[in-house]
Design brief:
single chain; 138 residues; alpha/beta; 5 helices; 5 strands; 47% helix; globular
Length: 138
C-alpha cells in the first residue's frame, strides 16, 4: 500500500516510516502541507497520515483543500494530533478526515489500522458502484 506521511517532527516521521516500511508498505514523506500537495499529485497515495500542526498551512486547511478537489477527495486521510483540544475529533471528521489518531502513535497497531481504513473505503466504493449499477433510478 502507498502511504504518505505528512509530519514536521523528525522523530515522529522516522517512527512512522520505519513501522510502515517494516510492515511492507511504500512510504512517502512530506514535512509541510505545500510539499504534501505536490507529493500527492506526483505519486497518488492510497492513504494519508496527516499531522494537524504543520509549518505554514495547518493540517485542517489541507484536509479541506484535498476533500474539495475531485482528484484527491477519495484518498482516505487519517488526522494525527497531540492537541485534541485544538483539533477536536468531531471537527476533523466533519472536515473530511476518515479517522483520527492521538499521539503518540502505536507502532504495534498503526499498519493494521491504516490497512483497515483503506479496505473500508474500497468496500464502500465497490458497494456504492454496485448499488448504482443495480438500481440506476435511485
Amino acid at each position: 500500500m502507498k502511504i504518505l506521511v505528512i509530519e514536521d517532527q523528525p522523530t515522529e516521521m522516522k517512527l512512522a516510516q520505519q513501522v510502515l516500511r517494516a510492515a511492507g508498505h511504500a512510504v512517502g514523506a512530506a514535512e509541510a502541507a505545500e510539499q504534501a500537495a505536490e507529493a500527492i499529485k506526483a505519486d497518488r497515495p492510497q492513504i494519508i497520515l496527516l499531522d494537524m500542526v504543520l509549518p505554514g498551512m495547518d493540517g485542517l486547511t489541507l484536509v479541506r483543500k484535498l476533500k474539495t478537489d475531485p482528484e484527491t477527495r477519495d484518498i482516505p486521510i487519517v488526522a494525527v494530533t497531540s492537541y485534541p483540544e485544538k483539533y477536536p475529533k468531531g471537527e476533523l471528521l466533519a472536515a473530511g478526515c476518515d479517522a483520527y489518531f492521538s499521539k503518540p502513535l502505536s507502532p504495534r497497531s498503526l499498519p493494521q489500522e491504516l490497512t483497515e481504513i483503506v479496505e473500508r473505503g474500497t468496500t464502500a466504493a465497490c458497494l456504492a458502484t454496485r448499488i448504482h449499477h443495480e438500481h440506476p433510478h435511485r
